[in-house]
Each structure stands twice: as structure tokens, then as C-alpha cells.
Amino acid sequence: MSLSFGILVFPQVQQLDLTGPYEVFASVPDSAVHLIAKDGEPVRSATGLPFVPTATFATCPPLDVLCIPGGAGVNALMEDEATLDFVRARAAEVRYLTSVCTGALVLGAAGLLAGRRATTHWYAHDFLARFGAVPVQDRVVRDGTLITAGGVTSGIDFGLAVVAELLGREEAETVQLALEYAPAPPFASGTPAEAPATVVERAKKRLCGSRAAREAIIGRIT
């Protein structure tokens, strides 16, 4: 069964939001993964990794799955009508509309989260209700044909969950084993509930610039 996956790519994307699910999707036999951008110009991730789009909004083929990753660049996308129009149009066609991390905020800005269960990065979770979503504190959340994932590394879990929905558990487990995905983090600090309070505050300070700008944007559009 041939499958077509599309992942939005944009300046200041969080690279692991993109590359985690990309690796999972690309590991499925007879699959195609498209990096979709407004135009074909190369972009750099939030940490400087360059990406070259393989399709534009105009040339993007039919998709089974559309994925919106997160990152600081999401702030601009929430007010970019060309991007929002593309997402809305494809949302009506794909089998699964999905996001990783703060990519969920783009879905919210496009009006696609109202009344739907969804999740996002822990430091943006409180924004979901502003878009009419039903916030859920899970790593991967499915609401019908909408699948959203939490922050950054959850993109791998999310990718496997999507593959299981499309092709069954055995195929998803085969991909997981091929990638040797057996997480065993050295520290129990992966969520605010687990991390020491001092670490949570350090992380918030590191992320506060993007959050402040995001707060202003969401205030304008909701």
C-alpha cells in the first residue's frame, strides 16, 4: 500500500519535531515523505539545520497524512494566511491531520481544533483552550482523524502511532525495532511533573522569549 506523508517545513522549525516523524514515516516500505513549504527556498531550523523543501503549496501531491511540526517559526505561521489556507484545504482531504509540539497552534489558528481533544508542548498547553480545543495531558492524543503530539521528542512516538493507525501494530513495531527506539533517558526530567522545580524554572526562562511573542499573536487572532 503506497502512502504519501507531508510535513510542513518553515524558517525556525524545531528540527526534531520534523525529523523524528520523518524518520518513522520514511521507514515504511513504499512510502513517500514530502517536505512542504510556501516556496522552494531552503530554510533553517531553530537550531540552524538547513532543510530543502521537496514540494510547495502549489505542487504538493495528494497526501494521506499532513503533519505540522512546531518551533519558534510557528509564531509567524499563525498569521500567515497562505499557510493557513493550505492547511485548511488539505485538512479536508487527508486521512489524518496531525501536529507535533507547537504545530498544534497552527491548527488552532486555522480553526481546526474547535471542540477537538488535542495536546502540545507543556509550555504552550494553556494556549489550546484559546482555540476552543479540549486540552489533554498525554504524549499522543487522537480525536477521530486528528492526531496531535506533545513536545519535540514525542514526534517519534507520534510517528509510530500514525503508522499503527494506517498499517497496523505489527508494521509500527517493525519500524520501531528497525530504528532501535527503546528510550531510556539518563534523567527523570522529561516533564514539568518529573523535573526539579529549579530545572523547570531554567527551562521556562530559556523558552520565555518565543512564548511572550506567541501570547501577543494569539491575543490578536482569538
Question: What is this structure's SSE topology?
Answer:
Blueprint: E1 3-8, H1 15-26, E2 31-37, E3 43-44, E4 50-51, E5 55-56, E6 65-68, H2 74-77, H3 81-91, E7 96-100, H4 103-109, E8 117-118, E9 134-135, E10 140-143, E11 146-149, H5 154-167, H6 169-178, H7 197-221
Parallel strand pairs: 1-2, 1-6, 2-5, 6-7, 7-11, 8-9
Antiparallel strand pairs: 3-4, 10-11
Helix pairs in contact: 1-5, 5-6
Helix content: 25-40%
Please tell me what the overall shape is. globular
Order the strands across the largest sheet as they lie in space.
5-2-1-6-7-11-10
Beta-strand proportion: 15-25%
Q: What's the CATH superfamily, by name?
A: Class I glutamine amidotransferase (GATase) domain
Count of runs of 4 or more consecutive helical residues: 7
CATH hierarchy, class: Alpha Beta
Q: By helix and strand content, what is the structural category?
A: alpha/beta
Contiguous runs where pLDDT drops below 50 for at least 5 residues: none
Strand count: 11
Order of helices and strands: EHEEEEEHHEHEEEEHHH
